[in-house]
Design a protein that fits this description.
By secondary structure, this protein is an alpha/beta fold. It has one domain: 3-Layer(aba) Sandwich (Rossmann fold). The chain contains twelve helices and eight strands. The chain has an eight-stranded mixed sheet, sandwiched between helices.
Length: 242
């Protein structure tokens, strides 16, 4: 089993879009038993994949009042399950601080290893107690980066924090250029600086996910956006195989 965190210091960079589409790729293209765990109180991944409203108990997993298995439910996509988010996660950083258990998330994930081949974490933005838990637990951290100086700076801070405050924990970091418009000079220059980074384009077919409430691959697999997510997933699998 491998744990893949979709994380960014900044919000609004396409994090949930990556998380949902990579989860679909894992379950559909690679036929992996896949779990998407939504850790963001905004619950965007949960909205896109779930037909039911969360029961305001997502945080209770971390205080061990509820077992993670109790909150898992199947999605409409074969081999893809979801642990949904809700507003209770707004207090998760405080709970982690009070518990003083640095590897609580990691231990909860260990308990799910027998059931899943890939677990993806849709993480809230910011350098927080939650992000530290994620960085300790993940095998690979996928970081969406909009081609701009501020977004690149935020990515550099993530790398610095992972190697500094937390020390060498073994997690790999994989930057991905997100929401790319090649017609923009700033974007083109950023892509030239980091030619080896995967690229996900800005496209209306991707933006329509919120209306369709489905991953791009489920309705437009052959579109440039759908192909970009498939290629990104292949790159993720290659990283994990190293």
């Amino acid at each position: 089993m491998a744990t893949i965190a979709i994380y960014s210091l900044k919000g609004g960079v396409g994090k949930t879009t990556l998380a949902v589409n990579l989860a679909w790729c894992a379950a559909t293209l690679s036929a992996r038993r896949t779990l998407l765990w939504d850790l963001d109180p905004q619950a965007a991944s949960s909205f896109l994949l779930s037909g039911s409203k969360a029961r305001e108990q997502a945080q209770s997993v971390f205080s061990k009042d509820v077992e993670p298995e109790k909150l898992i439910h199947h999605t409409a996509i074969d081999r893809l399950d979801l642990i949904g988010a809700d507003a209770s996660l707004r207090g998760l950083d405080l709970l982690f601080h009070e518990l003083d258990k640095k590897k609580r998330l990691q231990k909860l994930l260990t308990g799910l290893r027998k059931s899943y081949d890939r677990i993806l974490l849709d993480c809230p933005p910011g350098l927080t107690e939650t992000s530290d838990q994620v960085m300790r637990a993940a095998d690979l951290i996928v970081v969406p980066v909009i081609p701009s100086p501020l977004s690149e700076r935020a990515y550099a801070e993530v790398v610095k924090h992972l190697g500094g405050a937390l020390g060498a924990k073994g997690a790999q970091v994989m930057p991905v250029h997100s929401m790319v418009d090649r017609r923009r000079k700033l974007h083109a220059e950023a892509l030239e600086r980091h030619a080896d980074w995967p690229v996900v384009p800005m496209a209306s077919i991707v933006e329509s996910m919120a209306v369709r409430r489905a991953p791009v691959g489920a309705y437009a697999a052959k579109s440039p956006g759908g192909q970009a997510f498939a290629q990104l997933w292949q790159a993720v699998e290659r990283r994990l195989a190293r």
